[in-house]
Each structure stands twice: as C-alpha cells, then as structure tokens.
Amino acid sequence: MRIASYNINGVKARLPRLLEWLEETRPTVACLQEVKSQHEGFPAAEFEKIGYRAIWHGQKGFNGVAILADGIEPVEAQRTLPGDPGDEHARYIEADVRGVRIACIYLPNGNPVPGPKFDYKLAWMRRLRARMRELWAMEIPVAVVGDFNVIPEDKDVWSPRAMAPDALMQPESRDAYARLLGDGWTDAIDTLNPRGGVWTFWDYQAGAWQRDHGFRIDHLLLSPELADRMVAAGVDKAYRGREKASDHTPVWVDIAD
C-alpha cells in the first residue's frame, strides 16, 4: 500500500501533470493540498476515468484538500479540523481507506512573522495536535500527511540562514512540529533519510529548482500501528522539473499489508 501526498498548487492548472503522476506511479492513496477549487468544480470525473475515487473539501481560489483512492471509495471520517467552529478554511479532511485512517492536511503558512497569520498557524498546530492525540487513542493505523509548512531542522533546508526569518523556520513552528513527534508519531521521510538533504519544495523564483535551493515541508507522519509496517519512503523529485509543474513534489510511504 502506497500512501502519497502532493501539494498540487491548483488542481485544474496542473491536472495533466497530476494525471501523469497518478498513472505512472499508481499510489493506493493520494492526498492533495492547495487544490484551489470550489466543491462543485473539483474534477472528480477525470480521476474516475483512470480508476480513482475521491472525496474533497474545496474552497474558491485557495486552500482545498482531497483524498483519492485507487479502485475504492474513501470513506469520509472527518471534515475540517476540530477546535475552532469559526475557521472556514478548507485545510483538513479524514477518510478510511483499506483499513487505514488517512488525514490530509494543509497547514497554514504563517507569514508574515509576527502577526495574525503566524498566530493562526500556531493555533492550528495546537488543534492538530489535539486531533492527532484523539486518533492515537483509537489504536488504529493512521497516517497524517500533507503540506505542514514547517522545516523541522536545519538539515531540511538548502540554507538555514536564508530561510531564518520565514514562518516555516521559526522556533515556535519547529517546536510545535517536534511535539507531534514527541507524542510518538514517526516522520517517514526523516526516519529513512536521517542525514537530511531531501527537499519537497522549490520556489518558482530565483532559479530555485535549477540551483536545487529547496526544503522539506511535506511530511508523512505515521502512528505506531502503521510505522511498524513501513518498508520504504521517498520523494518523486523528477515531477518538479516537468512543464507547468507544481512548486512541490510528491512524497510517499510504502506500507506492508
């Protein structure tokens, strides 16, 4: 079972690239972020043509998350992150797929720092931790995956100095992420690449892709019940270099049946 995550940066704008990736790599589950589509405009029919069923939480122009499953309907378990009834951002969705609970997240960016957007980011991370503790208590296989908008350590960025002012690198952001791991969740990519140097995002500006000036913000966190079954994890880096690609690249983890 392959569980993948891909910040697609506009599902309609990148649809040809997304369909290529799905057909060429065939993940069992594909979690998407930044679909940037209203609920009614999500191209579910295009995915059905190649065998994928989908659930999604859309929002016009920005945000938006979706879970696609190969040959099976994802069974929705939760829509929106609990803890703030006034939060209308489409950043969270949960579903059961083949005995695994999948949570797809698009965590707030938080820039500029300081300010209300950064405060919202930290509050969202506290809510996420609370939900992940609820999932942990269920003692079931769980994967919480997506764009976390956190660079966990200096080894996860091409230049810590260049990114130091960014919300992705602030001590508070890193501490909130570290607390998730401290609760017992396994960072799949980091576990299998302990030296770092693995990027999942390259900005469109300043030739970042061509110069390999990237960083790791797309993560796959596994509960103990799932981490024990992990056999491989990686990044589909080549897809970042294709025409009209997202600024992110897919990440994935393989789970033994």
UniProtKB/TrEMBL annotation:
InterPro entries: AP_endonuc_1 (IPR004808), Endo/exonu/phosph_ase_sf (IPR036691), Endo/exonuclease/phosphatase (IPR005135), ExoIII-like (IPR037493). Its EC number is 3.1.11.2. The keyword ATP-binding does not apply. The gene is xth. The record marks H248 as: Interaction with DNA substrate. Its cofactor is Mg(2+); Mn(2+). Mg(2+) binds at N7, E34, D147, N149, D247, H248. Probably binds two magnesium or manganese ions per subunit. Belongs to the DNA repair enzymes AP/ExoA family. One of its GO terms (molecular function) is metal ion binding. GO terms for biological process: DNA repair. The active site is at Y106, D147, H248. The lineage of its organism: Bacteria, Pseudomonadati, Pseudomonadota, Alphaproteobacteria, Sphingomonadales. SUPFAM superfamilies: DNase I-like (SSF56219). It comes from the Bacteria. The record marks D218 as: Important for catalytic activity. The record marks N149 as: Transition state stabilizer. This is Exodeoxyribonuclease III. The keyword Cytoplasm does not apply. It comes from Tsuneonella aeria. Keywords: Hydrolase, Magnesium, Manganese, Metal-binding. Residues 4-248 form the Endonuclease/exonuclease/phosphatase domain. NCBIfam families: exoDNase_III, xth.
